[in-house]
Amino acid sequence: MKLNEAAVFKWVVIVGIAAAAVIALTLLTRPLVGSLFGLALVIAGCVYGYRWIEQKWRELGVKKSRS
Amino acid sequence: MESATVAVSHGDHHHGPPEANQSSRIDRQTLGILLFIVSEVMLFGAFFASYFFLRVVVDPPSWPPHPYELPVAVAGMNTAILVSSSFTVHYALESIRRGNRAGLKLGLVATWLLGATFLFIQINEYVHLGFSARDLSFGSIFYSLTGLHGAHVFVGLMLLSFATIRAFRGHFGPEEKDHLGVEVPGIYWHFVDIMWLVVFVTVYVL
To answer: B190 vs A16: CB contact, 8 Å cut-off?
Structure first.
């Protein structure tokens, strides 16, 4: 899979769903709970994003060595 | 006769400067916009650091400070408008990938209109807020964060304007290399959208 607009668009959807979850939790409980949940999501997102970029980089490297 | 022979023999050889060395694993345009976005994330990071410092470390009695209030419902509506614009720019790109020029034009025009609506509502919000950037550190950081994002929306609109004008002039095609002029502004627009989601949740909701 190539690193393109469609790949970045998936991140819009992921961040949108995460933001909606934080908003819902904040409205249902307290801003502090929402903030902590948001922080946990940001950390999880950073780990996932790092792995995602690593995988993309590997795929691009494989493509280059084949061509 | 002699010139024809020369032309044929030249056809076998490469003319002009040598091919540029492709040392990167990604094409130059995509790598350029990704590096630019990384630098932009750091810029926004500095502003968010200031925001959290003022809110958590300085720890005022209430946030926003009394008697200021933020129009959360209007900003929420604006968020929906901006998120929609990411879907329309994605539609525009999917259309040109399938060779659908009408879809490309429709998607780009819709994205531009949604982006302009977002910016218009934000300026209107500034006019009716009742506080300025001079009012406490809250006012300063609020206008800095939302203004920084608004400036990015403006730049994104400029990029989309160029892409839309080119689309109406018949540029772009289904081949990957033929629609980079939409793809790169599209990536930038998604970044602006993601940043707004973070700004909205941080400034208006939490």
So the answer is: no
Helices B136-168 and B180-199 cross at an angle (nearest 10°) of 160
Is A55 near chain B, with CB under 8 Å? Answer: no
- Cα angle, residue B166 at apex, residues B160 and B172 outer, rounded to 5°: 105
| Distance between CA atoms of residues B197 and A13, nearest Å | 11
Does residue A67 sit at the B interface (CB-CB below 8 Å)? no
Residues 6+ apart with CB under 8 A from B98: B174
**The model's pTM:** 0.83
> In which element (H, E) is residue B107 found?
helix B101-128
H or E element, residue B66: none
Q: Could you read off the pLDDT of B30-66 as tens digits, one per residue? A: 778 888 889 999 999 999 999 989 888 877 778 888 8
Contact (Cβ atoms closer than 8 angstroms) between residue A41 and residue A14: no
Residue B113 neighbours by CB under 8 Å, 6+ apart: none
Q: Which of A12, A23, A26 sits opposite B193 (nearest CB)?
A: A12
